[in-house]
């Protein structure tokens, strides 16, 4: 297993797996198989995959620590960028397919649907992380500042769940929201617990 | 070729001379049924072929004959929504809140036997069997725009008759000012009823003059056939100038009252859903705009949404019902 993680093909295999939902969506779109409301289908699917990749990328550190294998780290940047990729598609579906790239319409829409603002804030944070995802950015920013910036992924997790929860609140339909909230809460709680244990050991 | 003849293939007979698809389909059905040995039944249908309306049958369920409606505004010229879209993209929370849930789950709905209880301020209350209700008045085909409060729309060829026919039959008492519609709520066959999305049963209501309006339809079918379960079998209401949720599905009770009833959505979110819920591009939902809509199956991914029409385009027919009312207040 550990050797497999180290294999160069593993990185490509994971990248391909991560993009598989995208290829499926393109295929469904070309075959006109998106159902009665294609815009809604694509917006939802890209939002779902943003949340799912967010769960996966936040699982990297727990996996690394719990297994004791630093190899997991090889995939973290790529998984983060996949998350951003789906977030960009999700925003594009809204702005382009739903709003027809009409800025006036979008600006009129956002105050009515504040959950969009929350989603947009999460997207901005992801953008900042994506723009500083290459090695030289770490040097430019300095490791400490870079790490602080990239810790905003925890805020993204909270904002993403809030965005989803708020969107579904109109229908009192929280079953799916709770699944993502539980997974992300577990991943964040593990970090808090680890931090707490470390400080106690040091002190 | 300047001089066109019939043989060139570009000149067509006048429209009234083309055999409608529904007519030659019945002939084909007849031949098929003769081969299958069920000619007796088929001949009955053949005799009734004159009653066939314009919309070809979807070919999924039992046929339901009808004649095109003569009610003003009842036959919109908009392009029909595909049957597949109309039966796979539904809001019917009794089967789940996802729009694909009803098509997946509504098969459990038991529609036979079915009775509708008529209650309250009427001279002839009682339980009316589905068969009797279907015989109460001539079935008409009506092609209505359907505008969902969520911002999408369809065009559906319904089959049924004006609710007014039933109301006149049961003779409301002078005090009856509102009509309440109570829909089926069975936790055994409707998984959504076991969840807490809304208070069950689902209740909707109309003012008496709205209920008596000829466009208010008691529908038993669509696309030339009986009502699919996910669309509200065996009978439902269709009020084309109001948002779709006002048109209750799978009706089990109609109650006449002197007090304005509280509908399910009013109860769940009074600041978002009013009693009237008329389609109105000028009065936004608190959480989204109602100025535009997406026509299912027509407006592609890159198309701009179309403008929503006042009273969903039925202003000429129903506008006077609301004369002098502040529609922002009575939304």
Q: Care to describe what's here?
A:
The complex is a heterodimer of chains A (203) and B (331). Chain A has 203 residues and is an all-alpha fold. Chain A has one domain. Chain A is built from eleven helices and no strands. Chain A has helices at 2-6, 8-30, 38-58, 60-67, 76-98, 103-109, 114-131, 135-141, 143-150, 152-169, 175-202. In chain A, helix 3 packs parallel to helix 11 (175-202) and helix 7 (114-131) packs antiparallel against helix 10. In chain B, the strands form two sheets. In chain B, strands 1, 4, 5, 8, 9, 10, 12 and 13 form an eight-stranded mixed sheet that branches. In chain B, strands 3-2-11-6-7 form a five-stranded mixed sheet. The relative contact order of chain B is 0.15. Chain B is globular. Helices cover 19% and strands 20% of the residues of chain B. Chain B has two domains: 6-50; 62-322, Oxidoreductase, molybdopterin-binding domain (Sulfite Oxidase, Chain A, domain 2, Alpha-Beta Complex). At the A-B interface, helix 3 and helix 6 of A face loops of B.
How is this structure best summarized?
Chain A is mainly alpha-helical and about 200 residues long.
Topology:
The complex is a heterodimer of chains A (203) and B (331).
Chain A: H1 2-6, H2 8-30, H3 38-58, H4 60-67, H5 76-98, H6 103-109, H7 114-131, H8 135-141, H9 143-150, H10 152-169, H11 175-202
Helix pairs in contact in A: 2-3, 2-5, 3-5, 3-10, 3-11, 5-7, 7-10, 8-9, 10-11
Chain B: H1 21-36, H2 39-47, E1 67-68, H3 83-86, H4 101-105, E2 115-120, E3 126-129, H5 130-135, E4 140-147, E5 152-162, H6 163-170, E6 178-183, E7 203-207, H7 208-212, E8 217-222, E9 225-226, E10 236-238, E11 251-257, H8 264-268, E12 292-295, E13 306-307, H9 315-318
Helix pairs in contact in B: 1-2
